[in-house]
Amino acid sequence: MAASVPPTRPRIPGSGLARGLAVTLRTMTKKTVTEQYPDVQPDLPPRTRGVIGLFEENCTVCMLCARECPDWCIYIDSHKETVPAATPGGRERSRNVLDRFAIDFALCMYCGICIEVCPFDALFWSPEFEYAETDIRDLTHERDKLREWMWTVPAPPALDPAAEEPKEIAAARKTAEKLAAQQEAQPEVQSPTEPHADEQARAAEQPTRPTGESKQQTDQPRQEGDA
Ligand code: SF4
Ligand code: SF4
After folding, report:
1. Ligand 1 centroid to 104 CA: how many Å?
2. Per-residue pLDDT for 98 more than 60?
3. Three-state SS across the chain?
4. Domains along the sequence of the chain with CATH
């Protein structure tokens, strides 16, 4: 049995043109969304993933970011250094010293895993994105360049007023309060070089020699036979 074919509507001449003009009129009355980049810089959200900044001072060369990077585009070189014992009889320690830290942004897929896994807050997102290069090799950013990006990282947003106080700030506040309480509890210690209040009062009561007299004495010529 043959399938039934739905009847086609008769086409009105010029209906396609009318529909096209209707679309044009609708679009003309809407606000334009075209970004005038590069004449006008785009207003990017603060958490934009533009480029990765390295805060070298926080990096302990644990290699976690390089191991977790799915693209293997983080290159880290380091060597070990022996730190002498801090106290007599103490143990020497060894620490990692960073020699090279580079990210190849030609391979990076901006997943953010390296930033998430870094346990020492050494990597951050910066919204900067204007680092296109004509040579692909220049997209490998070495530690100096990654440090430069660090200064473009926006400040973190303020905490929610109802949020719990961060552990670091709570610990610092408690230490400051403890020190202030200890200082208040200590009796005032007199400096050995500072005269006592009674001595200062006695010295103020004693008559002082006029300065003119002393000058006259010193200006007198030496008599013969003076020792
Ligand atoms: S963002 Fe992802 S791909 Fe890029 S360096 Fe970090 S872990 Fe690797
Ligand atoms: S995970 Fe963080 S601390 Fe460890 S090597 Fe990477 S940047 Fe440095």
Report:
1. 9
2. yes
3. CCCCCCCCCCCCCCHHHHHHHHHHHHHHHCCCCCCCCCCCCCCCCCCCCCEEEECHHHCCCCCHHHHHCCCCCEEEEEEEEEECCCCCCCCCEEEEEEEEEEEECCCCCCCCHHHHHCCCCCEEEECCCCCCCCCHHHHEECHHHHHHHHCCCCCCCCCCCCCCCCHHHHHHHHHHHHHHHHHHHCCCCCCCCCCCHHHHHHHHHCCCCCHHHHHHHHHCCCCCCCC
4. 59-84+91-150 (3.30.70.3270)
In this predicted model, what pLDDT tens digit does every residue of 146-177 receive, in sequence order? 999 999 999 888 888 888 888 888 999 999 99
Determine the average pLDDT of the residues in 47-76: 96
Residue 174 CA to ligand 2 center (angstroms) comes to: 30
Q: Which protein residue has the closest C-alpha to ligand 2 atom 3? A: 59
At residue 18 the predicted structure's pLDDT band, cuts being 50, 70 and 90, is very high
Tell me how far the alpha carbon of residue 103 lies from the centroid of ligand 1, in angstroms.
8
